[in-house]
Structures are given as C-alpha cells and as structure tokens.
Amino acid sequence: MSMNVFRLCGDMCHVFSILVLLLRLRVAKNAQGISVRTHELFLLVFVTRYSDLLFHFYSVYNSVMKVLYILSTASIVYTIRFQEPIKSTYDQSQDTFMHWKFAVAPCALVALITQLITDGTTPHLFKMLWTFSIYLEAIAIVPQLIVLQRYGEVENLTGNYIFFMGSYRALYILNWIYRAYTEKGYHHHWVAYIAGVLQTLLYVDFFYYYFESKKKGGKMRLPTAN
Hints:
Blueprint: H1 5-28, H2 36-49, H3 60-82, H4 86-89, H5 99-119, H6 125-139, H7 142-151, E1 153-154, H8 156-182, H9 190-216, E2 220-221
Antiparallel strand pairs: 1-2
C-alpha cells in the first residue's frame, strides 16, 4: 500500500481529530454534545475493516495506524460509557439515533447484496466486512450531527474534532483517485467513492457554520431542530 500526500494528510487529520476529542474529554471532564453512538459505529467500522490485521502485513506504519484507530476509538467509547465524572455528563436523552437498527442493519444488508452481485453466490467474508465498513463509515457521523443540532451551540474543541474528521474522509477520496491513476494494480473502487462522497456531503452544512464561526470569531452555532 503506497504512501502519497493525500493519504498522509488524511491520516494526520484523522489522528488529530481523535486526539482533539480525547483532549476535550480529559480537560473538560464532560461529554456534553458528544454522541457515543457515533463512536460505537466508528469502532465497529475499524474492527471490521481492519480484520486483515490477523493475516496480512503491509507495513509497520499501516499496522500501527490501524491499531491506533481501534484502541483510541474504544477508549473514547469506554470513557463516555463507564468513566466518571465523564459518564454522568453524557446526555442519553439527546443521543437517541437508533444506530443498530437504522445504520448497522441496513449497511450489513447492502454489503451482503453488493458482494452477492460482485462475487456471486459465495461472497468472500473479508471483502464483505470491508464493504460493510465503507458503507457504515459513510453514515457513522449522523448521530453526532443530530446531537449537535439539538444542542445548537458547538463547543470549540468538538467543532475542531468534527472538522478534522470530515477533512480526513475528503482527503481519502483524493487518495483513492490518485492511487487508481498512479499505482499499478490498484483499481477504482466505486463503492468507496460513492460512500466517501456521501459521507463528505453530510459534513457540508457543518463546514459552512464552522467556517462562519471562525471568520466571525464567535462560538459556533447550528440551527436547532426545534
């Protein structure tokens, strides 16, 4: 798996987004405005996508990044779900998106259908897990965006976390396209392109208000759901 500027910048945005969120939890000692359901979805994304850690080795960098994503996301989920005083500040009444029913189950079904179409009646398990993770990642941010819309006001570190998470996915689309044209044996993955574009589009409204708040120098505010 080759390295290029788009992948490197995307990885750094992803790592920085996770570090910003962990810093926000540790410093502020509260999880107000954070959706644990989004991070449960991301954790499932990383566990299923990086199942190849069990039988493939590409590079030290690749393996370290995969393990980092899994462990850091698991740490976020654990901190919000079980660690006081942060656990007591998590508002479950605002984080109500039924992620297992309306995200995990549909993505699993679509991934199975995709693999049946591409591989016939005997879908490859690890290919199906990869496809599932791509679909699920596209919508994993939805519970978090819903929570932010309900709160209206976005804390600065939370806003930065989501901005860098959205930037990571946009840069990875460029990485995939670049590799398809420059790396021998690498082909266009239309499933990844479509899911990546959908995921990036989900951030567009957030990006608009994020840049507006930075330009004006005030707190970031989103239109409320009321």
